[in-house]
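Could you show me just one protein sequence together with its fold in C-alpha cell form as a worked example?
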Amino acid sequence: MSASTSQASRGGFPPTHWSVVLAAGQSGSADGAEALAGLCRAYWYPLYAYVRRTGRSPEDAQDLTQGFFEHLLESRLLASADAAKGRFRSFLRQCFRNFMAAEHARATCQKRGGGQPILSLDVVGAEARFGCEMADTRSPEVVYERNWALVVLDEAMLEVQREFAYSGANRTPIPIQIGQ
C-alpha cells in the first residue's frame, strides 16, 4: 500500500500533483478523463470521512459525497483551481464545505408558511374585487398605490371602531368598508 493510499484510507487527504488537477479540469481528452477519475478515487474516502466526522449518518455522507462529485463534474469546478492560491486539498475541502452548506440550506428551507401561524386570506373575495378592477385603465403601479391607501384607511377605520367599542359607548358602531 502506497503512502498516499494509506493516508486516504485513514481519511486524510492524499498529496496531489497540480499537473493532475489541471489535466482533470480539461474536459474532452482521454488524459483529462483519466486524471479526473483518479482524483475522484483518491478523494472519495477522505471527503466521505470528513462528512462522517461532522456527525452525519453513513447514508447522508454517501449521498453528500456522491452529490459533490456530481456537482464537481457538472460545474467544472476543477477548471477554477489555482496552484497559486494554495493546496488542492484545501481548495477541494472548501468547495465541499460550500456544497454541504448549500445542500443543508436547500434541505432545511421552510416551504410555504415556514411553520408560522397561517394568515387567513380572502382569496375568493380578492379575485371578485380584482374582476371589478379590470375595467380600471390606470397602470398597475397606480392601482397598487390606490389599493394600498384603501387598506390603510380600512385599518384606520377598524381601529376607530375598536376604540369606540372599548370606550363603553352604548351605541353599536356602524361597520364601514372603504376599500369595496
User: Anything to note?
Assistant: The radius of gyration is 31 Å. The domain at 3-108 is CATH 1.10.1740 (Rna Polymerase Sigma Factor; Chain: A).
